[in-house]
Amino acid sequence: MYIGYSCKEFTDALASGAPVPGGGGASALVGALGTALGSMVGNLTLGKKKYESVQDDIKAILEKAQLLKEQLLSLVDKDAEVFEPLSKAYGLPKNTEEEKRKRDEIMENALRMACSVPVEIMEKAMEAIALHEELATKGSRIAISDVGVGVLLCKSALMGASLNVFINTKLMKDRQYADEINSRVDEMLKSGIKRADAVYMEVESGLRK
Predict the structure, then answer these.
(1) With b meaning 16 or more CB within 10 Å and e meaning fewer, what string describes 106-133?
(2) pLDDT tens digit string along 160-195?
(3) In b/e form, how buried is each residue of 20-55, taking b as 16+ CB within 10 angstroms?
(4) Alpha helix (H) residue ranges in the chain
(5) Cα distances (Å, whole numbers) of residue 12 to 5, 18, 22, 34
(6) Which of 80, 151, 166, 204 sits CB 3.0–4.6 Å from 132 for a disulfide?
(7) Are the C-beta atoms of 79 and 121 separated by less than 8 Å?
(8) What angle is formed at CA 136 by the lines to CA 130 and CA 138, rounded to 5 degrees?
(9) Which of 76, 75, 39, 73 shows the shortest CA–CA distance to 58?
């Protein structure tokens, strides 16, 4: 739906008053861009005699990064798809007790669906951050700045997607389920931000020497 857009078309759609694409889709795209930068570093390392000892590792990174990039791009569209039932649920009538009950039930299911994609975006961003950790030590030094940019984009995808979880869990009636999702998201944020920051600082300090 959106991944076939040009850069201009997508940013124009993002800037419009339409509810989708929104922050979730943008986060997925940013994660895909960060992962693509990781792939670029890997490809610049591949086949270089200077990095002969890590060639097998680089090949594995490239395979993982390609899959991750494709998955994150698919989540751009998937995020828009799961938002549609939620947007419709907001418009359901609530004049009678039966209508309220039915609306609450539909809303709860729609909120769970709307949470599922940003959680998945976060999971993929965590995997991408792990690849950048490896590239920071094994990737070509001529592209090390791109490792830093890539990991920053993956961190942004992680953090951006978390907000799209929290805006939905906040509205859930089932607080136990909401708390479980929030706890899982908090763990990913704590770990992912720390790891991404460490990679960025390693890259920055190396460039400033």
Answers:
(1) bbbebbbbbbbbbbbbbbbbbbbbbbbb
(2) 999 999 999 999 999 999 999 999 999 999 999 999
(3) bbeebbbbbbbbbbbbbbbbbbbebbeeeeebeebe
(4) 7-15, 23-45, 55-90, 97-138, 144-169, 175-208
(5) 10, 10, 12, 21
(6) 151
(7) yes
(8) 100
(9) 39
Question: Using CA atoms, how far apart are residues 195 and 16, in angstroms rounded to an integer?
Answer: 34
Instruction: Give the Cβ contact number of residue 70 at 10 Å.
Output: 13
* Both structure tokens of 136: 């920071």
Distance from C-alpha of 131 to C-alpha of 126, rounded to nearest angstrom: 9
Gap between the Cα atoms of 189 and 49, Å rounded: 37
Give Cα separations from 31 to 52, 70, 128, 194 (angstroms). 29, 11, 8, 17
